[in-house]
Design a protein that fits this description.
The protein has a 4-stranded mixed beta sheet with strand order 1-2-4-3. Helix content is 52%, strand content 15%. The protein is an alpha/beta fold and 143 residues long. It has one domain: Collagenase (Catalytic Domain), CATH 3.40.390. α1 runs parallel beside α4 and α1 crosses α5.
Length: 143
């Protein structure tokens, strides 16, 4: 199945390179599909993946509403194919890791695709495996 990737910028605080991010996430998609943990993973079955860049305020609201956690987070992934990414968190974390904002955002988008592929980062061992996969994919598609 060929998925459509839609990328929306719903935040205005930080300048982002949407064409570059679209190109990176489209290039990462087949690698994330190859890394899916099972044939039942949502990533292998959703016809469209929608990624929205939002603010910390908005991701905090969604985090509280759907996950009962009223704190900001980097990425929230819904199994129907929606991925929310906090541009504010990406800027903070990117600065800490000495990564440009767009590269950090691309990493978060790949992280969301990995979640759709059945990966979970609540256990330390799986989180480490997931981090290694997503970094490898980012390095492969973004150089």
């Amino acid at each position: 199945m060929k998925q459509t990737i839609r990328l929306y910028n719903h935040q205005q605080s930080h300048p982002v390179d949407l064409p570059w991010l679209r190109r990176i996430v489209k290039a990462a998609l087949p690698h994330c599909m190859d890394a899916a943990k099972s044939v039942d993973a949502p990533l292998l079955h959703v016809p469209e993946v929608e990624i929205s860049l939002i603010s910390d305020d908005e991701i905090t609201r969604v985090h509280a509403e759907f996950l009962d956690d009223p704190t900001p987070t980097d990425v929230i992934t819904f199994h129907h194919g929606e991925i929310l990414v906090s541009a504010d968190t990406a800027l903070r974390q990117g600065t800490e890791h000495q990564q440009p904002l767009n590269r950090e955002l691309a990493l978060y988008m790949i992280h969301g695709l990995m979640h759709l592929g059945g990966w979970d980062d609540h256990e330390a061992s799986e989180a480490a495996q997931m981090a290694a996969h997503q970094q490898r994919i980012l390095d492969l598609v973004a150089g």
